[in-house]
Design goal:
Blueprint lengths: L14 H4 L2 H11 L6 H7 L17 H13 L4 H7 L15 H16 L5 H6 L7 E7 L8 E7 L3 E5 L5 E5 L3 E7 L4 E6 L7 H4 L13
Antiparallel strand pairs: 1-2, 1-5, 2-3, 3-4, 5-6
Amino acid sequence: MDKGESVYQPLPGSTSNKLGQKAVKEFVNDFIRPTSNVDKVLSEMRPVYIDRSHTFVKEQDKKELAKKLKNKKDGKLTAKEKRRLKVYDIPKEAHQYKLFEPLSQLWQGYMSKLLSQGSVNFVQKLIKADFHGATMTVVQTTNPSYIGITGIVIQETMSMFKIITKENKLKQIPKNSSNFDIYIQEAQKNYTLYGPQFVARPAERASKKFKPKPTIDL
């Protein structure tokens, strides 16, 4: 038998019709109601394969199916559906620096509030802060073409900062290979963010414990 052929192909000729039919009919006839038609029952019976491939869902997929059904019931989209629908994509018409200037001002107010709580632990708070609205400059990177890019952070992912520049260009800067400077008006000071330390989702970074490192090489 060729490898591509199914192990469940019917037997040739009339063999498949005769094989075991007498015993099966006798068994069914003993266990069904007299008013039922044996031939009709046999024709409606579904085959059961030894690998259970006849079932709607295999055993190992039950949990995944339950999760999908729950998401559908709750009206949630899966990650694959979100990518297909481009839920997180920023539309081209929104690539305008001026649209995000109010967000930048809001972020500076956010930093002022953190500073008002005391400057002693400010750096630790800054590491865990939300950077949507922060004005960043790429000061060091393994890709020379990114050096000097400045703009407002409009989206952060686990591995990227997406920055809109004054030229209305959307730049995606990888965290793992870049360091950034941010200027905080209230402190009148620049702070350097070491990108490799920020490789995490924003929500996870807020609860992450950072270990001090003497040097960080790109």
